[in-house]
Structures are given as structure tokens and as C-alpha cells.
Known about the structure:
Shape: globular
Strand content: 5-15%
Amino acid sequence: MxxxxxxxxxxxxxxxxxxxxLGLDLDREDWGAGFRxxxxxxxxxxxxxxxxxxxxxxxxxxxxxxxxxxxxxxxxGATALLPAEPQARARVxxxxxxxxxxxxxxxxxxxxxxxxxxxxxxxxVQAGVASWNRHMGMLDAQLARTGAFVTGDAFTLxxxxxxxxxxxWKNAPIERAALPxxxxxxxxxxxxxxxxxxxxxxxx
Length: 204
């Protein structure tokens, strides 16, 4: 299988961390900022959004990083990462969807202004930081309830996708809320295969 996308992308790194957990060796090609443009017609034929990453498995192409993570886990039969039991699986996917929608939208303005240099008013950045901390507080409360991982005692895909997001929050040049459950959870994640290479590597 081949993954198209630069390693500096948080969405590429979540897929690569999933692959590391599954023992998969993905053939990754650099696409995106600084490399080949995902606006090329050939790439747009694979993903009309023109975004990275894209997974290619034979004649099958898949975009949306969380969907790629689910596909890899399902193909490998990794029910520890993506449970087969409907309620347990729904809980994992609920937090994955929350990461892709609610949490990502909370940090977008502040992160893009402070780290990527995109224009934004001080008021918008301040509001963005507050929203980011508020959403991370929701994750902290969930982790305080479970005392272990996002959905309970087991490490799942929810921890992979949210682990990347939490590390971005931890490394961002912002005033962070005190979230002890998140900090303890990140310490637990740091011992997982692939964490040092794809999460705790200093990349934003």
C-alpha cells in the first residue's frame, strides 16, 4: 500500500502511527507544501478535495485520514484498535469524529495564525485559544473518567488521532489550561510503538 502525503502533515502522521501500531510498512510519497502539488490533475482524480493524505491499495484510493486509519485497522482485523462490537466501535468512532470536526475547528484560527503565520486579528486568536483550551478540557474530563485511554482501559484509534491533536496543543505557543489527565495520558501514549517517530518528534 502507498500513502501520498508529506510527513510534516499531522494527518499523514496519524496514518503512519496507525500503520506502525499494525506493523504495516506503507510506501509513503511526499506530496503537499514543498513537494508535488495535490492540485495536479492526477492527484485530484484520486482526491477531488486536493488534500493529503491519500491511501492507494491496488486500484482502491481512499482519502480522509480518519477513514484511512479505520480502513487499515479493519483490513488488518485489529479489533483492539477498532472494536467489532457495535457499541464499543461506535464509542471509538464518536471520539474520532469529534477530533476531526469539533476539536480541529477549535484550534484552526489560533494555530494557523500563531504557527503558520496566516493573518488573523488578536481578538480572533484569543477567542481561538480559549475555544481550543475549552475543547481540550472536554478531553481531559473524559480521560479523568476513564483513568486510562480515551474510551476506557484499551488503547484504540481514538487515542491515535487525539494523541496527535493533543501533542499539537501541548507544543503550540499559547497559554494552556492545566489539564493533568491529558498530561498523564500523553505520558502513557509515549511508550507506544511509533509515538516517538510520528507524535513526539517536535513537529507541530
